[in-house]
Amino acid sequence: MSFADLGLSDKVLQAVSAAGYTEPTPIQAQAIPHVLARRDVLGIAQTGTGKTAAFTLPMLTMLETGRARARMPRTLILEPTRELAAQVEENFERYGTNHKLNVALIIGGVSFADQDAKLTRGTDVLIATPGRLLDHFERGKLLLTGVELLVIDEADRMLDMGFIPDIERIVKMVPFTRQTLFFSATMPPEIERLADMFLHNPQRVEVARPASTATTIEQRLVATGAEGHEKRKVLRQLIRSASELQNGIIFCNRKRDVAQLQRSLTSHGFNAAALHGDMDQRARMAALDGFRSGEVPLLVASDVAARGLDIPAVSHVFNFDVPHHPEDYVHRIGRTGRAGRSGAAFTLASRADERSLSAIESLIGRPIEWLDGDLASLPDDAEGDEPRRRRGTRRAKGSERGAEKGSERPSERTSERSSESRSRGGRRAASDRGRGEETRRESIREPEPVSPAREPARSAPERSRSERRPPRRDEDDDTPVGLGSHVPAFLLKPTGFGKSK
Ligand code: AMP
């Protein structure tokens, strides 16, 4: 099957061949003819499958006829995050080089004025995050009654982020007769319900089993204590000893940990940038650009970066925290091992994470090997904040999801978002995890020499926790020694880029 067989216009075909694509991906081959036939499409596809072009290419073809009117966009694409929205805009730029279409990006974190000007000029394609779109609507700057085609992308992510009430409001504002394309990586019952509500006799297109992890990714669990300084030390040693590390994303569950970890890595001589939802848009784009260009090889990120971002060829993913939602694990490690390349994913796990680990293993359908000894190999004082319990048991305190402070949430609007209603988590692994299966790698818990403090001051809650404990040596305060010959030079910071903001 070639692109020419799909019914795309000549202008689009030229742009596709200029982009170097020779063959459509399965989601493109399956979805594009239905989109062009004006059918509603339910696409079940993860990022990395080429799903963005599966809707941008036929949209460009269809938009060649007709023209936009002021404040009345012809098509609307809803994205859960600003980065994803910006990425879709880039797709329109790349594939729309032969078109003269007005594309407007309506996202939070940037001024309204420029966005207003674009809307007034008339837009063919409006790409928006839900919060900012509603803000414009409420200010009377936008009419959605001219929308002929609506794309709801990453619907399961929208659900995770509490956007569904906003989406339902927006869908009520667009004409009932519109064409709708609805994409989601997974189809939990709540998403099925929305698909039933929004789509009319849709063509269902599914390209990859949700929740599968690529076989090209080497996955390992790394046992660690729960304290931040211990985890940071283990992470540094992991990075130093990782083989063939080109670049890596380090995921944290909480935004404040992203900032702290990036500062810590930087102070230890690593070249790392931070990406989380509380950063302003310019800083987020600068961090992403630096990482994409290879200037900054390490990106410390919250889950906002886990889904959808098109960052080619990431060699390593490090989960500084075990994600509370098993699906997030799949999305995080999906940043590596893309397009048949090999990749490595390391997950730091403490005894407090046993339940989340069980849920992940249950979701991916197999146990994950430990790198260098499982939780039972940890010393007795490695309990972190957890009550002491039997070593190596799988029991842990209840899931903290949604309860933690600073967990990633959309911050575009001042209003509180409705809490999520997911029916996930808490699943226990039926499988035994093959304890004691150790790979023969350098130990990563080797002590480092002690030296004066370098780490920035800790946050108040962390300080008070450590004050309750018996005095102990803070290993994270070590001078960054051991960065000799076995540290790839590109990991060392050549410039001030990525310094704490
Ligand atoms: P997406 O799933 O939309 O995030 O796309 C993932 C990556 O695949 C992007 O880097 C696209 O540029 C690339 N891509 C999209 N379609 C094709 C294609 N037909 N052939 C090769 N690469 C593609």
From TrEMBL:
Pfam families: DEAD, Helicase_C. Keywords: ATP-binding, Helicase, Hydrolase, Nucleotide-binding. SUPFAM superfamilies: P-loop containing nucleoside triphosphate hydrolases (SSF52540). This is DEAD/DEAH box helicase. Residues 1-29 form the DEAD-box RNA helicase Q domain. It comes from Methylorubrum rhodesianum. Residues 234-379 form the Helicase C-terminal domain. Signal peptide: none annotated. Belongs to the DEAD box helicase family.
